[in-house]
Amino acid sequence: MISIEPTGVPVPDRVAALIGAQVPEHVLQAEVEATNQAYCISLCRKPEYAEAREHALSELHRANKVLAKHHPKLPVRPNGVAA
User: What digits encode the pLDDT tens for the residues 20-45?
Assistant: First the structure.
């Protein structure tokens, strides 16, 4: 049996704009914040950056609460991947 791995389908810009127009502004802001904080967490791996990592985790959690309230599959994990 041949197994084919699923690949992501590119979304045209106009379709993405239509989707974005349907999402409330505060949810879009939370998505940007969650993505930025997930990136910051990936930069704060050394022990001397523990305080910065904890702050980024708390901001990520705050943004994820907004995302989860809008849709349960929107929260972002600390490695930057949607849950």
Answer: 889 899 998 999 999 999 999 989 88
Annotated domain spans of the chain? 24-83
**Would the pTM count as exceeding 0.70?**
yes
CA quadruple 16, 21, 22, 24: dihedral sign: positive
Which residues, at least 6 apart from 37, have a Cβ–Cβ distance to it below 8 Å?
A: 56, 57, 59, 60, 63
| Residue in 55, 64, 2 with CA at minimum distance from that of residue 30 | 64
Put residue 10 in one of left, alpha, beta given phi > 0 → left and psi -120 to 50 → alpha: beta
Q: For 44, which DSSP code?
A: -
Residue pLDDT, tens place only, 49-68: 999 999 999 999 999 999 99
Contact between residue 44 and residue 78 where contact means Cβ atoms under 8 Å apart: no
The answer to whether 30 and 66 have CB atoms below 8 angstroms apart is yes
